[in-house]
UniProtKB/TrEMBL annotation:
This is SWIM zinc finger family protein. Residues 104-117 have a biased composition (Basic and acidic residues). One of its GO terms (molecular function) is zinc ion binding. Pfam families: SWIM. Residues 100-132 are annotated as: Disordered.
Length: 475
């Protein structure tokens, strides 16, 4: 059993629960701290608001999937009492040794019996209702036809007509697409409306808002065109199952791990290190997005984890957190896509990141700026792909040229470092300028992006990797 600060932050449902767990530990609210002889189980009693103490235990028989139990009424798993119990362990408090309680041993035995009965196999995926799926595909095609007509009218009339009552018309269209199982195109239209609303509120930013709206409109038109062909082919072939096309998600489809495994989009025994973590807020979707960028220390692939936390459901959706450890994942599932594919997993084990691991990461950097830019351009050509890409670039020096901070690679090529638009108050370029020793050679992890107004490719720095450490500019 290896309980660390990183593990606590990884399993905690949110920052508030972590803070409450720390308070419980600091106030010594637990009594009867106990562990099993093999240290796969810890338990104790915690003073709370109830008449009797809460009985709390954490079972690490399966170290990758610890089981948290507590008699408190909280719906969070793990609750603050379980987190407090782990903080007590990390703090080095004394745990007496005792036999595993009969109640917990019985639960272990039942679980083992169930696994033996089905041979330890994963549960069979639910059968899909082909008729219902076919009906859904036809409904989606009808919705795309409706959206296509309105987009064509808008492109013919011009974006300048999208104001006043026209904005209301497109707001209604966005709502209507929700009835056609098209949350993807629906979101595009909502973002288009947002840009026009911002323009009305800020006429001085007309050029930027029109440029953003044009980009969204092109993406929407391309999505509609490709999706109609995609859905028509699936109906013709009688295939209603998710496949490895990015259009499945672009239309609003939600991937299940069993479907990703079915199409072979998974890997076993993956070793990942998080290079960056950030929380942003999407005004249109009204939700927080927890995003972590991870590098596979063996293959060098950079992927991302995404956790969406709608405002309406903040109490019930686990808040992700940063980690500085090496995560070993038994099964990692990858979404279809180009660079920086989304990755998910059910369980992982954490261990300290060694100097050897850092050396492996440095060895996976892109050869030079030219190679990285070429890969980014190839992705950006696809209208359905992200217009930014996370890359690891080696550099010989970082300096100031023409009042701009510039990274120079080992071949002498340069790229200007700049914050992504909308990063007010969160500038990583400013943080980099204040970092001692940042000019020393190493590798930089950051985001390549195309700036519409400047018509140039920049890089936003997120982390610096030396031979001894990873220094994050934001986490």
């Amino acid at each position: 059993m290896n309980i660390t600060q990183d593990l606590i932050h990884l399993v905690a449902p949110n920052a508030a629960a972590i803070a409450n767990g720390q308070k419980i530990s600091a106030h010594h609210d637990f009594s009867g701290l106990t562990k099993s002889e093999d240290e796969t189980l810890i338990w104790g009693e915690c003073t709370g608001s109830g008449k009797t103490p809460y009985r709390t235990s954490i079972d690490f028989l399966d170290s990758e999937k610890p089981v948290f139990r507590c008699t408190c009424p909280s719906r969070q798993i793990p609750c603050k009492h379980a987190l407090g119990l782990m903080f007590d362990w990390v703090a080095g408090k004394s745990f007496s040794t005792a036999p595993i309680p009969e109640e917990i041993q019985t639960k272990r035995d039942r679980k083992a019996k169930r696994e033996n009965q089905d041979g330890g196999a994963a549960p069979r995926p639910k059968k899909r209702n082909a008729a219902a799926q076919t009906k859904k595909l036809k409904k989606q095609l009808a919705g795309l036809d409706m959206a296509d007509r309105m987009v064509r009218e808008l492109m013919k009339a011009g974006l300048h007509t999208l104001a006043g009552t026209a904005v209301k018309t497109y707001e209604n269209l966005a709502k209507e697409l929700g009835n056609y199982y098209l949350p993807g195109p629906q979101l595009f239209i909502m973002r288009l409306v947002q840009q026009m609303q911002l323009l009305q509120a800020n006429p001085e930013g007309e050029a930027a808002h029109f440029q953003n709206a044009s980009t969204i409109l092109v993406q929407l038109a391309s999505t509609i065109k490709k999706a109609r062909v995609y859905l028509a082919q699936k109906l013709e072939n009688g295939d209603t199952t998710p496949d490895d096309s990015v259009l499945f998600e672009a239309l609003g489809g939600v991937w299940k791990l069993e479907d990703l495994k079915r199409i072979g989009s998974y890997r076993r025994d993956v070793r990942l290190v998080q290079l960056s973590f950030d929380v942003s807020f999407d005004e249109v979707r009204r939700e927080y997005i927890d995003r972590g960028y991870w590098i596979d220390v063996d293959s060098g692939e950079i992927s991302q984890t995404l956790s969406y936390r709608p405002i309406k459901a903040l109490k019930y959706v686990k808040e992700e957190d940063t980690t500085f450890s090496l995560a070993t994942v038994p099964e990692a599932y990858y979404y279809p896509g180009d660079l920086n594919r989304r990755v998910r997993w059910d369980a992982c084990s954490l261990s300290p990141l060694t100097q050897e691991g850092i050396a492996q990461i440095l060895g996976k950097a892109q050869p030079d700026i030219a190679t990285a830019v070429k890969a980014f351009k190839n992705q950006a050509k696809n209208t359905l792909s992200d217009k930014y890409a996370a890359m690891l670039l080696p550099y010989s020096q970082i300096g100031i040229l023409n009042e701009q901070i510039v990274l120079q690679d080992l071949a002498g090529k340069r790229i200007v470092l700049k914050d992504l638009p909308g990063e007010d108050g969160r500038s990583t370029v400013t943080a980099l300028s204040m970092l001692p020793g940042a000019a020393d050679a190493g590798a930089m992890f950051g985001i390549l992006f195309y700036h519409e107004q400047d018509r140039r490719i920049y890089m936003q720095p997120l982390s610096l990797i030396s031979s001894t450490e990873i220094v994050r500019l934001r986490y």
